[in-house]
Every structure is written in C-alpha cells, then in structure tokens.
Design brief:
The structure is a single chain. By secondary structure, this protein is of the alpha/beta class. It is built from six helices and four strands; from the N terminus they run βαβαβααβαα.
Length: 108
Amino acid sequence: MRKVVVLTDHETATGFRLAGAEVVDTTPEHAQATLEKLITEGDYGLVAVDTSLIADPAASTARIMRGRELPILLPIPSLKDAFSPDTVDAKAYMGKLVRDTIGFDIKL
C-alpha cells in the first residue's frame, strides 16, 4: 500500500504531524531535490506539497514524472501566504481558499 506524505517547511510541519500526517520538512533551497527523492523512492501514492516551497510541483517535476502514474502531486496553499505583507485581509484570503476548493462559502 502506498503512503501519503506532506512536504512542507519546519514551522508548518508541526501542525500536520499533530493531525497524524507523515511529514517531510525542508527549506525552499532543498525542496526540489527532496520532492524528486520522494517521487523516485516509489513509496508514496500522494505527495502534498506546500506552495511556499514549490509553487507548481507538477511543472517542476514534469521530467521525472514522465511515464509515472504515482505519486499524485497535490499543491496545498501555504498559511504563510495568508499572513504575508501582501495579503491585506487574512480572513478574506482563507475564505477564497475555501470557496475555490469546495465551490461555495462557509460561514460560522
């Protein structure tokens, strides 16, 4: 059975670990090499990639993924983007992520 792993930065890794996910934490400088290693190991069916490390994991690994069906590469939005100086309203940013993902707003 193939495994699921999250490729993220050290700060965010703790939250994913607390949720029970297998995590590989890395830096932006080493993210591409780490992702390629995860792909070539062949143990993973799904690799979720933090977009603050690699903005488009599918495009950045097109050569190494050629002829492979797995792993599926899933870009996940970075929480750092929600709280960056460029983001005026973190709540609106998170609302947009939810709306883009599931197709409608959720209000609590």
